[in-house]
Design a protein that fits this description.
The protein is an all-alpha fold and about 250 residues long. It has helices at about 15-35, 45-60, 75-85, 90-110, 120-130, 140-155, 160-180, 180-195, 205-235, 235-250, and strands spanning about 35, 40. It contains ten helices and two strands, in the order H-E-E-H-H-H-H-H-H-H-H-H. Strands 1-2 form a two-stranded antiparallel sheet. A hairpin with a 3-residue loop joins strand 1 and strand 2. The N and C termini lie far apart (about 45 Å). Residues about 1-10 have low confidence and may be disordered.
Amino acid sequence: MNRLKIHSPPRDLSRIWILLFSFASMVFLYLRTFLLPATPFITLGDEAHYFIHALRMLHGQLPYRDFFTFIFPGTDLLYVGIFQLLGVHQWLVQGLLLVLGLLLSWIVLWISSSVLRGPSAILAALLFLVFDFNSALDATHHWWSTLFVMAAVGLLLGGMSQIRILAVGALCGVATLFAQTHGGLSFLALALYLGWTNREDKQSSNLFCELLLLCMPFATTVILVIGYYVRLVGFRTMTYWTIYFPVAFFSRC
């Protein structure tokens, strides 16, 4: 496990810069999602679909059986959990968007600090926040899955260990629950990365152990959640809407 040493992020990014960045990001996102002092902007993006999905699930309906969707249910379940905890309010959708933007920008800052030093590391996060996330202000499965994939990548940048590989597998599993394409392909890419870093290791048992550590939490996370819906709506229904439908019909759009 110690064959590969990746330098940890530099420590010269002071707390004051991180606090300033966090404050500026929060103000920017708040002004993009709320009208001062506290009126949420109307929800116009695709996040409205998941808002409605969560409401229908709160009333006992099931995805894939009672309403149309072709994405794994991670985003719907997230909204359901938040609505059950805080109630159904319009501001929650915009509030989630604000939290999502902050989490993504912090992760970009975390990753960029691995290759850039000092305040320069903040530039990548600011560019992402203003020019990327700001152009797609939708708290949908795309951003949520990207959040967990980026967290997995950031973990591996800090070094290679059994705990980190287990965590990466779990994060890819959660990302798959939000978007089966993002999470699944990211899991495959990270598995190939482990194979690449083992290419000069004559002991193939290292690669087998690492792949096993990566696969176990990934498979457990996905099977537990998706297996629950397979039991409720049936294997054929689940695979038709989440696998066959996108493959068969998206190419015609």
